[in-house]
Automatic annotation (TrEMBL):
InterPro entries: ExbD (IPR003400). It comes from Mucilaginibacter rubeus. Its main location: membrane. This is Biopolymer transporter ExbD. It is a single-pass membrane protein; Single-pass type II membrane protein. The lineage of its organism: Bacteria, Pseudomonadati, Bacteroidota, Sphingobacteriia, Sphingobacteriales. One of its GO terms (biological process) is protein transport. It is found in: Cell membrane. It holds the Pfam family ExbD. Belongs to the ExbD/TolR family. Signal peptide: none annotated. The keyword Zinc does not apply. Keywords: Cell membrane, Membrane, Protein transport, Transmembrane, Transmembrane helix, Transport. The keyword Membrane applies. GO terms for cellular component: plasma membrane.
Length: 199
């Protein structure tokens, strides 16, 4: 029986350079990327018409508005700890150093101060994190005041305020927060929104 002879020569393909390149790209993505932040309230950002490449980092306090709740996100653990101690002394509540350290690991403040000790003791419970009832406007104002004092005390700089509101939140609810900031002489703040790319 006839058996054709192949004229092609078979070459061994070295796959190691491809794996090395894949490893370099993967390492770059892991080191340069940041994990997505999950908030206790669902926020669908409104769509904006311009694009700003600045990335908020540093001494930011982010006010979360959504699902008829108000919450505050503070960036630095030392600011959160100092603000908690100041809030405790203001309302005659004592927090142990262990409480303050554990509270420093939380990122979003959405529990009223009277229930704060219970929340801190069960912080690693995800159901407690997502079931926070939110802050009143007065308590949010107090947290902002104390966090601004703590930022000045710890870092000798001013706190920059960021608003992050759900697209379905009625404007009067946002206006209450803006008016509260105005009472503290905070007339400059940033608003986070998603960008709709023009085609």
């Amino acid at each position: 029986m006839y058996k054709p002879n192949s004229r092609r020569e078979h070459f061994d393909v070295d796959m190691f350079p491809m794996f090395n390149l894949l490893l370099i790209v993967l390492s770059f993505l892991m080191l340069s990327g940041r994990p997505a932040t999950r908030y206790p309230i669902l926020i669908n950002l409104p769509v904006g018409s311009c694009f700003n490449t600045s990335d908020p980092e540093g001494n930011y306090a982010t006010i979360l508005i959504g699902q008829k709740k108000l919450m505050l996100k503070l960036e630095d653990a030392d600011i959160r700890e100092t603000a908690l101690k100041q809030m405790g002394s203001k309302h005659n509540m004592t927090f142990t150093p262990a409480d303050a350290t554990k509270f420093g690991e939380t990122d979003v403040i959405g529990t009223p101060l009277p229930q704060m000790k219970k929340y801190i003791s069960g912080y690693y419970n995800a159901s407690d994190y997502y079931a926070q009832q939110g802050l009143s406007l007065i308590e949010l104002s107090e947290w902002i005041i104390e966090s601004r004092k703590a930022t000045w005390k710890q870092h000798n700089t001013r706190t920059r305020i960021v608003l992050m509101a759900d697209a379905e939140t009625p404007y009067p609810e946002i206006k209450k927060v803006i008016d509260m900031l105005g009472q503290q002489k905070i007339n400059k703040f940033s608003i986070i929104y998603s960008y709709l790319r023009q085609i």
